[in-house]
Amino acid sequence: MLCVCGEVYNGLRELSVLTYREKQIVYALVNYKDVSSIARAMNANHKTIYSRVRKIAIKLNLRDIRQVRKFIFSEITT
């Protein structure tokens, strides 16, 4: 399997590559329906949340927020 900077290993993407704040956003993606709700809950601008989600997507070798959400839910259910 492809290995990108240790982030992908035998098909398993690890959340350990994320910073503390990025992990908070990941958990918020599970608990909140939209980015505006996450921004209000985290007392941040919605553009900041989108920016951080983009960084999360890059670290996990994903394309966008939809793929990040799908990945998170697949990790939780397994």
Automatic annotation (TrEMBL):
<dbReference type="InterPro" id="IPR000792">
    <property type="entry name" value="Tscrpt_reg_LuxR_C"/>
</dbReference>
<dbReference type="InterPro" id="IPR036388">
    <property type="entry name" value="WH-like_DNA-bd_sf"/>
</dbReference>
<dbReference type="GO" id="GO:0006355">
    <property type="term" value="P:regulation of DNA-templated transcription"/>
</dbReference>
<keyword id="KW-0238">DNA-binding</keyword>
<feature type="domain" description="HTH luxR-type">
    <location>
        <begin position="15"/>
        <end position="72"/>
    </location>
</feature>
<dbReference type="Pfam" id="PF00196">
    <property type="entry name" value="GerE"/>
</dbReference>
<dbReference type="GO" id="GO:0003677">
    <property type="term" value="F:DNA binding"/>
</dbReference>
<dbReference type="InterPro" id="IPR016032">
    <property type="entry name" value="Sig_transdc_resp-reg_C-effctor"/>
</dbReference>
<protein>
    <recommendedName>
        <fullName>HTH luxR-type domain-containing protein</fullName>
    </recommendedName>
</protein>
